[in-house]
Amino acid sequence: MATPLLRVQGLRKQYTRGLLRPQVTFSLAADFTVDAAGVIGVMGPNGSGKTTLFELITGGNVPSAGRVLVDGQDIHAVRHRERDRLAIHYHQSYQVRSFKRRRPAFMMERAHTPSPLVHLFDEPQFNTQDGYIGFMLDFFRRLRAQQRLVFLCLHPNEPFHVDILRESCDRFIFVHQGRLTHAASFSQLTRDERVKAYLGRLAPVDEHTAAE
User: Fold this and answer.
1) pLDDT, tens digit, for every residue of 108-125?
2) Among candidates 89, 92, 206, 87, which has minimal Cα distance to 155?
3) Residues contacting residue 6 through CB under 8 Å, at least 6 positions apart
4) Taking the mean position of all CA atoms in its chain, how far away is CA 66?
5) What is the pLDDT of residues 8-61, one digit of tens each?
6) Predicted confidence band of residue 209 (pLDDT cuts 50, 70, 90)
7) What is the rounded distance in angstroms from the CA atom of residue 96 to the CA atom of residue 165?
8) What gap in Å lies between CA 146 and CA 37, rounded to an integer?
9) How far is CA 131 from CA 41, 119, 134, 137, in A?
10) What is the pLDDT of residues 55-114, one digit of tens each?
11) 3-class SS at 40?
12) What is the spatial distance between Cα 159 and Cα 142, in angstroms, rounded to a whole number?
C-alpha cells in the first residue's frame, strides 16, 4: 500500500486558562488522510480553528495529542528549520512565527524531502489587479501537477471567492467550533445548514426553493 501524502492521526489541540483550576477555552480535533495530490478548500468562521489546524500540520504548533505524517514522516519529530521542506504555511499576516523547542536539533530527524509536499495558504488576499488571481490559480494548478497537496483557506466575502473555491478545489473541509466536516464536492458541502449560514448571501440558491 502506498504511503499517504498526508496523515492527520488523532490530532488534538486544547487551550486552557487558569493554573489551579484549568478551564478549556478551545479544543480542536482532526483525523483524516489524503492519499494523493490535489487542492482542498478550507472554510469556517473566524475562531473556528482553521489557522490552528494549519499550524499543527506544518509543525508550527505543538499538538496536545496525535501526530501529523507527511509522506510517512512525523513532522513534529523533524528539525524545526527543515519542517518547511515537508509542509509550508503561507500566513495571511506574513509573520514569521517561532517554534517551541523541546529538543535540540541533533536529536531530531532530518527532513527526507528537499522541497515542501504540502502547501497551506491561509486566506490569501486575491488582489483584483495586475493578474494576481490568475497567477495564484496557476500556481495552485502547477503544484497539483507536481504531485503536491494544496490547502486553500478562504473566508469568502465576494461571489468570485466562491467561484474560486468551487472551480479550483477537489474536496472540502468545513471547520466549525474545532471540528472538521469533510465533503467530496462543493454541492455536498453547501447542503450543510451550517455552511449555508456561514456563506449567507453567497450560499448557492437551492433550485427547489427558488422555483417556489
Assistant:
1) 999 999 999 999 999 886
2) 92
3) 33, 34, 57, 68, 69, 70, 87, 118, 149
4) 17
5) 999 999 999 988 888 999 999 999 999 999 999 999 999 999 999 999 999 999
6) low
7) 27
8) 8
9) 21, 21, 5, 10
10) 999 999 999 999 999 999 999 999 999 999 999 999 765 555 555 667 778 889 999 999
11) strand
12) 24
How many Å apart are CA 8 and CA 34, to the nearest integer?
9
* Angle at CA of residue 119, ends 118 and 120, nearest 5°: 120
Report the C-alpha gap between 51 and 5 in whole angstroms.
20
Reported residue count of the chain is 212
E strand segments, the chain: 6-17, 23-34, 38-43, 65-70, 73-74, 87-90, 118-122, 149-153, 171-176, 179-183
Decide the pairing of beta strands 23-34 and 6-17: antiparallel
Q: In the numeric block, which cell numbers belong to residue 41? A: 478548500
Q: Residue type at 101?
A: R
What would the grid cell of residue 196 be?
449555508
CA distances to 54, 91, 131, 134, 197 from 127, in Å: 23, 16, 8, 10, 26
Q: What is the SS3 string spanning 42-96?
A: EECCCCCCHHHHHHHHCCCCCCCEEEEEECCEEHHHECHHHHHHCEEEECCCCCC
> Which triple of cell numbers denotes residue 129?
489587479
